[in-house]
Amino acid sequence: MAGVWYLMKTLNKINLLLVIAGWMLTHLRVDAAEASLLAFELEATDGTSYTERSWAGKPLVLLVASSEGVANNAGQVWSRPLHDFFTAHAADVVGVADVPGVPRLFRGAARNMAAPDDDDAVRTLLMDWDGEFMPRYGLSRGAYNVLVFDRAGKLVYTVALRTFSQAQLDGMLRDLQPIVDAF
After folding, report:
1. pLDDT at position 21, please?
2. How far is it, in rounded angstroms, from Cα 131 to Cα 27?
3. Would the pLDDT of 11 be above 50?
4. How far apart (Å, rounded) are the C-alpha atoms in residues 29 and 23?
5. Higher-pLDDT residue of 2, 142
6. Distance between CA 136 and CA 167 in Å, rounded?
7. pLDDT tens digit string along 93-149?
8. What angle do CA 132, 139, 49 make, to 5 degrees?
9. Residue 131: which region, alpha, beta or left (left: phi > 0; alpha: psi -120 to 50)?
10. Rounded distance, CA 122 to CA 86, Å?
11. How do beta strands 92-98 and 60-66 pair?
12. What is the DSSP string of 28-91?
């Protein structure tokens, strides 16, 4: 009986910790309506280190995806038209790969596998080894997430994309036109 009582007390402690952790994740996230580019330091696939200050004073578009978000080829079909649209409006377009859990021993191989090819639209791909972007911005792991920041670093647009649709792309670009005109 003492073993059952001890197990119940332990489970109650674990439940309490889970409740606290859940509260922290939901309350420490960035409110999209008031969000700005959060401080970060990430390494690109070419070994260059970047921080949020790397794009100070420039419009920035982050295309953030986990392996679940690119497994359905969403990144490949969405990245080219988005890159072309945003770079035509003087914005930098940067990919962020959400890859937490990759052991340090395998990070070099993962970096090489993820490195952009000559025909890839996005030329800079940051490796988020700690998985900080997804939870901090409330992004969807199963989607190709687009975050648009203005010159002041304020988040002005966000969307989670899944299956490609030309109609959805056209509508999104129409919605984005006034935003990029303000860049």
Report:
1. 37
2. 17
3. no
4. 10
5. 142
6. 30
7. 988 988 888 888 888 888 887 777 766 667 788 889 988 888 888 888 888 889 999
8. 35
9. left
10. 11
11. parallel
12. SSPPGGG-BPPP-EEEETTS-EEEGGGGTTS-EEEEEEEHHHHTTSHHHHHHHHHHHHHHTTT-
CB 165 within 8 A of CB 39: no
Rg (CA), the chain: 19
Averaged pLDDT, 23-51: 67
Please check whether residue 144 is in contact with residue 75, taking contact to mean a CB–CB distance below 8 angstroms.
yes
Cβ-contact 125, 97 below 8 angstroms: yes
Place of tokens 């969000």: 35
| Bridge partners (DSSP) listed for residue 97 | 65, 127
Is residue 24 pLDDT above 60, yes or no?
A: no
Question: 144-149 and 155-161 as β-strands: parallel, antiparallel, unpaired?
Answer: antiparallel
Alpha carbons 42 and 130: distance in angstroms, whole number: 9
Looking at the predicted structure, is the pLDDT value of residue 32 above 50?
Answer: no
| Predicted pLDDT at 61 | 92
* pTM assigned to the model: 0.74
